[in-house]
Amino acid sequence: MASRKPGQSDHPVVHSAFAQMRSGKLDRREFIRTAALLGTSATAAYAMAGLKSPANAAGMPFSPDDPKAKMGGILKIAMAVQKMEDPATYSWVQMSNQSRHTLEYLAMTGPDNVTRPMLAESWTASPDLKTWTFVLRKGVMWHTGEEFTTEHVAWNFNRWLDPKTASSNVGLSVCSALVEETGEKDAKGKAIKRVAKNAIEIVDRYTIRLNLNKPVLSAPEDLYNYPAAMAHPGFKAPISDNMVGTGPFQLVTMKVGDRCILRKVKTMADGKPFTYWGGPVYLDEIHYYNFDADNQLNGFASGDVDGVYDFNVEQMDLAKSLPGVIHIARTAQTICCRMRCDTKPFDDKRVRQAIVMSVDNSKVKSLVYTTGGDVGENHHVAPVHPDYFALPPLKRDIEGAKKLLKEAGFPNGIEVTIDVGNTDGPWHQTACEAMRDQMKDAGITLKLNVIPGAKYWEIWDKTTFGCTAWTHRPLGTMVMSLGYRTGVPWNESHYSNPAFDKALDAAEATLDVAARKEKLGVAEKILQDDAVMILPLFRPIYTIVAKAVNGYVGHPTQYHQFNKVWKG
Amino acid sequence: MLKLIASRLLQMLLIMVVVSLLLFLIFDSDKFKKQIAVAELGGFAVSALSEQDYEAWLEKKGLNVAFYERYAKWASGVAHGNLGRSFEKNEPVLSLVAERLTNTGILAFWVFALMIPLSLGLGIVAGMKEGSKRDRVVSFVAVFTTSLPEIATAIIVTVVFALGLRWVPANSSMVNGWDWRQLVLPVMTLVLYDFGYVARMTRASMAEVMTSQYIRTAVLKGLPYRRVIMRHALRNALIAPFTIIVLQLNWLLSGVVVVEVFFQYAGFGKLLLDAALFGDVYVIQAATLVAVCVAVVSQIISDVGYTLLNPRIRFG
Amino acid sequence: MAGFLAPFRQPRRIVGVMLLMWVPLTLYVMFGDGLGGARFYVLMPAIPATLLLYVLAITSWRESPVALIGATLVFFWLLVAVLVPYLPLVDPNKPMAPFAVIGAVRNDHLFVLGADFKGRDMLARTLWGCQRVLVWGVSATMVAYVVGCLLGLIAGYLSGWWDQGISFVSNVLLSFPVMVLFILILNYLGPSGFNIVIAVTFASAPAIMRIVRGITLDMKSRDYIYAAQTRGEHPLRIMVFELLPNARGPIIVDACLRLGYTTVAITTLTFLGLGLQPPDPDWGLMIKESAKVAMLFKFSYMLLAPALCVSSLVLGFNLMADGLREMSLRD
User: Fold this and answer.
1) In a shared domain, residues A224 and A127
2) Does domain B97-278 have CATH number 3.30.1490.10?
3) What value, to the nearest 5°, has the Cα angle with vertex A474 and ends A469 and A475?
4) C186, C157, C320: which is closest to C247 by C-alpha?
5) How high is the ipTM of this complex?
6) Which of A567, A565, A559, A564 is nearest to A103 (CA)?
């Protein structure tokens, strides 16, 4: 395939990113992702990168219609069936999966990490990345029979940004650039932020403009964050009582802890037949059945379901002996065994360094996750993050660790206790046990204090040494500013280093993709050298589906996309 | 007699009031409120919540009022047949409990249907001739199966019949609608666990009757052995087992939680466990009260039945 | 032989030998981490004590084969519990070869009972697993007995308001199905061995109290109690030293049965996630951890091994109770 070059219509950042890709400074996949975010069509971006685009229906976020596909059938998935109150305040991915085929998003990030237009047909960004214009698809219908328009989009944005809604969407970069301080304060003196005037501008029935107060690169990607689903203005909590959406399925039965049944929409509320904007949808019904996390694979093994939400690494051997297709997704989900930098004995950097040096992260990773996963480098940016900058690999150094401990006043070794809550599964403990065995060589006695998950969440930001689970976030800068900037609420290690804050600010302020990576690399290095945490690995996500299920692809954030799935 | 029943029922009511008050007090603690919040909003989100947002959340859930107020509200609701709403499952407790009770009821029905004839039959056969070979075999099997904990029996039958022979599924979640094959293993586990106990009681009762004066007389009189057993011995020998069997109701309601969990059967015991782990106070209340009620009522039935059946006991 | 054993048959000495077995074992399991280097040696005196107790048991229960079998099963596990640190086993918590099946040789190690999903040696885990069940099970039963006996004695001996109050509370507790009580208490207190002791006490003490109260009421009117009363002895002294020893018979049988129940309860609760916590091996825990990975015939040994072990222990307690009851009826 002859590679194309960016044209007039493409964003200036796409041009510079293209040049960087050519000179080898930018990864091809990263170029595609950036170009797609900035409004270049995914197919064109793939062509520019000289890669074969995954087959996609023209202008659609889904894989193309399969001529062999059979209509009909029920897809049964084992998953925790959770309460659905308000899509804007969803706190678990499972909730969003239950409504994902009804309540849709403006954009959709595919399994290839490339964001494509969904309810929006296209978007453009101004050169300074402060003005984003979204053009909606025409003919997208609500199940009520109304057409989906920019009025509805504006209504959703305003609702998310209303402090009363308490939506976590406020934390998205695009949303935080839409609000400003009003001078009001809440009871605790925290400033209340409200939507800035004219921030959300309806241009016409199908065009809406977001006027941001700071540049944002990831706007379309943010709009596929799971609580950013487009709800109908007639929405009243709980959404499960009356779920009106634009998607091909509607909710038929919803019983928390039991089942959630979705059925293909045939007619709209006004009696007219419903035509889905996204073309043919093959399944008749999608059934989610509630299984405890540990029992989902057993449900699959006994043939009750066609697939599972996920299974854990201990179950891999069982999964391998079952007839089915195992999908492994790379993620930035991780555990962060972090030390409180302001509490004895961890206030001494040499102690932290000795602890970190005595552990071989790659060994821990291969012990805990034999299949898939990435080795962590103690700075919380994962190889799957688009802004990840590869530092030289870490080396285990027992002698160095012993020397540092001696200097720090522990010539006979040191005993430390880590709190482990297994909040993301028993593998936390396996990882900590592996670390314990490795630290022994350096004279460090690691004791494991295993506590129930709910207990752990009460102390996660207080304990001096704890193993905290962090979920996947799309950007490295995002996790770093959430967890390590001086004084931020989730800074569980109480880490404070002006040099790091400066480096992180510099990276965040950089729009140029390759330069941003390099600048984030500086921050990564500072954090790594300060030995705040052992972050041994980034976990993979395992799922399994029956062989009869076609068109299923595992998504790194476990979002279900069944629009083109069919059963053979 | 009636007076006795009435006083027992009254005592039960008193106990239920005490229990429900205690449960409310326990589950009103900040710890359990936090637990509900963590389960609903996620641990990360809760720890990031400001004090004010948390208060707002409590208010939304109706958890911020004093516990006696909540209790009074709940109690008057109960009087009107409204058992409240489940925090976890977001549906009325009444329908939830009714549904799970039905499921456990089906399980219990089949356990009784198989266990009663089996254990009575074996117990009678064994007790007819104490010390005989038959008696020894039955007694040994009974002690053996009763000694296997339910969880061990569940594992053994699963390994043999589901994983090994593949006759029945290993999992009883019934997600694809009702399936009798999924009921086989839980019923088998419970029958295996329970029949031994009832059989031993029947055997002891039968053995005692067989040594009694009037049976010996009947046999000596030359009445056919069969007739002696059927007409005279059985009637008296079955009184004790009857009371025991009625008491099994109580065990079948909530003692089977481990079997329900192991086989993923959506029964009453599992509901109670899930609710306790979640801190779903209205479900716990309803389930506990039902359990207490069944326990006490089965006790009363067993006592009353024993008195009615046994000609030697008369209440003045 | 008989001559050698004779001095140990005095009740006081039997209790002494029992303590010699029990105290080290409890120390080892409950407070092992605090013992430091001494941990390795602490169980040594318990080995001869356990053997001696076993010999005493089989020599005095010769007439009841049922009790003999039961005692053999129970003492087998007791011996394993005190011997296991000195047996040539690998570390039960060390991951070696995940899913190594029975008889597999991996990393120069023969997996006699296979390895679990984390690759830990099942033989080592199964044998180590008896310690926690035995120690917590027996401790919980003992505490329940102490509480139950005291309450029973008080209710039966003092009568009046004491009796009314204690009986009402125990009626409330008894009207709960046992499992419900366990779930509620452990959910409130949090899962741990010590909390199991508390939960078992709540669940068992009322029933024990009833038995002891009944016996006390029955014996209160006997002459020797009057004698003690007229001697002006303190009621507590009368209760513990005059009444309690005479209630010994039914209590011992009941205790054996109850030990069985408690073993089952601990295993069950641990399986439900309300009991003992990882990582140390325990049968209930092994079942819990394996249930999600072993639902294939070739991996079923992970479930069967702990299930059969716990069954054999419970069977031992039940047979012992049966045998003792049989013997007491014969006397």
Assistant:
1) yes
2) no
3) 95
4) C157
5) 0.88
6) A559
Instruction: Tell me the pLDDT tens digit for each residue of B220-271.
Output: 888 787 888 877 788 788 888 888 888 888 888 877 889 999 998 989 988 9
The residue behind tokens 């012992």 is C320
Is the confidence at residue A153, as pLDDT, over 90? yes
Domain boundaries, chain B: 2-79, 97-278
Chain B residues with beta carbon closer than 8 angstroms to that of C184: 23, 26, 276, 284, 288
Find the range with the poorest average confidence among A252-261, A390-399, B157-166, C8-17.
Answer: C8-17
Task: Mark which of A194, A209, A232 sits at the end of a domain.
Answer: A232
In a domain, A503, yes or no: yes
Sorted by sequence, the CB contacts under 8 Å of residue A67 that are 6+ apart come out as: none
User: Looking at chain A, how many residues does it have?
Assistant: 568
Integer Cα distance of A113 and A388 in angstroms: 14
Residue A75 covered by a domain: no
Residue A382 to residue A540: CA distance in whole angstroms: 12
- From chain A, the residues in CB contact with B42 under 8 A are 91-92
Write the DSSP string, B174-190.
-TTS--THHHHHHHHHH
Residues of chain C neighbouring B269 (CB-CB closer than 8 A): 179
Structural domain boundaries in chain C: 2-86, 128-330
Q: What is the pLDDT of residues C222-269, one digit of tens each?
A: 777 778 888 888 877 777 777 777 777 778 888 888 999 999 999 999
Question: With an 8 Å Cβ cutoff, are B42 and A92 in contact?
Answer: yes
Using DSSP's 3-state secondary structure scheme, residue B173 falls into: coil
B56: how many CB neighbours lie within 10 A of its CB?
15
Query: Which of A302, A315, A450 shows the shortest C-beta gap to C278?
Result: A450
Whether the CA torsion B234, B240, B243, B247 is positive or negative: it is: negative
Using an 8 Å Cβ cutoff, are C183 and C253 in contact? no
CA B218 from centroid of its chain's CA atoms: 40
CA distances (Å), origin A216, targets A97, A113, A195, A519, C159: 27, 18, 16, 17, 80
C-beta atoms surrounding B70 within 10 Å? 19
Nearest C-alpha of chain A: how many angstroms from B171? 7
First to last CA, chain B: 8
Domain that includes residue A427, residue range: 330-540
**Chains in touch with A (≥3 Cβ pairs < 8 A):** B, C
Structurally, chain A folds into a number of domains equal to 3
CATH code (residue A113):
3.90.76.10
Q: Is residue A160 within a helix (H) or strand (E), and if so which, with residue range?
A: helix A150-161
Would you put residue C298 in left (φ > 0), alpha (ψ -120 to 50) or beta? Answer: alpha
pLDDT given at position B154: 94
C315 touches chain B (CB under 8 A): yes
Taking an 8 Å cut-off on Cβ atoms, the answer to whether A305 and B51 are in contact is no
Does A168 sit within 8 Å of B45, measured CB to CB? yes
Read off the pLDDT band of B316 (50, 70, 90): very low
Q: Find all residues with CB under 8 Å of A356, minimum gap 6, and list them.
A: A378, A531, A533, A534
Contact residues on chain B for C199, CB-CB shorter than 8 A: none
Cβ <8 Å between B147 and C260: yes
**Homologous superfamily in CATH for domain C128-330:** MetI-like (1.10.3720.10)
Number of Cβ pairs < 8 A linking chain A and chain B:
85
List, as ranges, residues 272-291 from C with C-beta within 8 Å of A: 277-279, 289, 291
Q: Choosing among B10, B25, B32, B155, which should be mutated to test the C contact, i.e. which has the most C CBs within 10 A?
A: B155
Mutation for testing the C interface, residue in B11, B151, B153, B293 having most C CBs under 10 Å: B151
Predicted TM-score (pTM) of this structure = 0.84
